[in-house]
Amino acid sequence: MVQTNSRSAAPVPALPDAALSADGLVKVYRGGKRALDGISLSVPRGSFFGLLGPNGAGKSTFINILAGLVLKSSGTVRVWDRDLDRDPRGAKAAIGVVPQELNLDAFFTPRELLDVQAGMYGVPKSERRTMEILDIVGLADKADSYARTLSGGMRRRLLVAKAMVHNPPILVLDEPTAGVDIELRQHLWEAIRGMNEQGTTILLTTHYLEEAEQLCDRIAIINQGRLAALDTTANLLKRIDGKALLVTLDRDLDAVPTALIPFAPELRAGRKMVIRYRPSAVPVGRILDAITAAGLSIADLTTEETDLEDIFLQLTSSRSA
Description:
The protein has ten helices and 16 strands. With 321 residues, the protein is an alpha/beta fold. The chain has a domain at 241-305: Alpha-Beta Plaits (2-Layer Sandwich), CATH 3.30.70.980. A hairpin with a 2-residue loop joins strand 11 and strand 12 (226-232). Helix 3 (110-120) packs parallel to helix 5. It starts with a strand and ends with a helix.
């Protein structure tokens, strides 16, 4: 299927529905470590896609395969409808990767770094957008400052700018907010959101759930190299339904009172009790009523949101049930 340019009869290739896709992707490193174990997922064109997982889950391996820095063991990968094996140059040209590491030449200015990067991608001088890109990431006023004089947040934004020099339709950010303070983090996300609104597909890898919740419209969660969940952010958050109630009582307990047995509390030293529950199924008031019915008084009460490890446990257990 092709689109036709209104000014000529020359056919224009239709834009792919999926910006990125992987099918049965496996990576086994020397020594037998299986970093990716049959990952299959699709990133819709124009989406802001989050790839979540704890350290060592396989996120960076996935990104490095897309960037051509790591060779996959098996499976297929398509980048902007280009097969990574059959057309590696075309696949790499369609993607810009912002790595975790601040790998910048300290003695180059942002203007020089972007010109060098553009030259490496074969972008003609007449088509380079150096100052436009620096303006997008908020570094136009630092165009001629040495990279070594830039703050950590500015260097992160400069890495984003480097990834944009060849105008790729896909931008991949691998843990981009590491070491960035709150103010500069907001500037970075403002720039990235703007690019997404202009049609750039964003793939964000992070282990910060709250960051993905604010930014991403679709999320995949991987753990130990396997896909644990893939859904829209809204649907996924509905599945992440768990809290912990941390109660400090007025006295020590030797055993769980009968009234509290249905809630399976965990007794801890120091008169503390932890009750894990699903807010959608169990109102917290029911738990408090049960504590009162057991003849106990509460000295202190706090709640704890589900963290990423709990989410993995919840998703894994629900899938295996």
